Give the backbone structure.
Amino acid sequence: MELKKICELLQGSFPFHVRRHRQILGLLYPIVNLKNAKKYDPIGFVFPEVNLKAGINYRKYYRWAFFDYYNGLMIKGASKVNRVFCTVFPNRRPLERILETAARGDLVFTHHCCGFDRKKGFLPIPLDILERIKEKQLSVYSLHTPFFNNGPWSTSVQLAESLGIRREGEFAAVNGKPTGVFGQAPVSNLNDLKDLLCRQTGARDISIITNRNSTSAGRVAVIAGNGGYEHFISEAGRLGCDTFLTGTAIEEADIPDSLEANLRFRRLAEQLKMNVIGGGHYFTEKPALQKMVCFFDRHGIYAEFVPDSEDRSGVI
């Protein structure tokens, strides 16, 4: 299929509802600090920062139009696409696997525009990988905010469905659209929910923070990825949730603002007497990227999911 048609399909199915960044970045970056950047969509400031720190001239490799929204077609390759490779993060190992098997012009569909390591945080696509992508004329399409806004294919919806949570409603609005769901757990206690999460996603290093006298699991709030924020868990408390399930329950990356935000989140969880389960950023978003294979298949486009290198270990 033509790359242009696939991009139109994705834009129609996942419209962008995020701020325009190009003018903001031109005026403020790099003198803007992280606290000011948080007033905008954070990924638009993380991306330039991690690339510049690595000495990568990102404007050489990425489309200028990508910087309008930090979503959409990042790298434009050949016009004809035979196969789509779906991955959570554009980390080195999955991209190396893709480069080994991809034909000229194939498309990488990724949830994030940056790689990720739970100890280091976000990372740029390595320079040598960018060169190989360019040489093979592959395209890369990133879908961040529009993909975690709730919808049939979104990250939190797919995580809840994979666990069999009986959905009762939505919460956690970002850019005016909900990103979390809540409902009744299919099991009766935290340990069973942990085991279920392990079986369905492959996660092994699952955090459990017990803040209640009981380990029962009733109404569960679900936000895939990095959903550990005060305002989200506060809203979950008002909705009568006793358990909060997300990717990052305990922040490990040495990023001061993230560590402080996570500490506030955990303190509030304790005050609210709400139990917390953290299944990992990658593993809680994995079901949605696996499901995207079906999305592309419905439109006559061959696709496959490419796991990260640490998938088998259950730790990422």
The domain at 149-283 is CATH 3.40.1390.30 (Udp-n-acetylmuramoylalanyl-d-glutamate--2,6- Diaminopimelate Ligase; Chain: A, domain 1). The longest strand covers residues 166-174. Residues 94 and 100 are 10 Å apart (CA to CA). Confidence is low (pLDDT under 50) at residues 20-40.
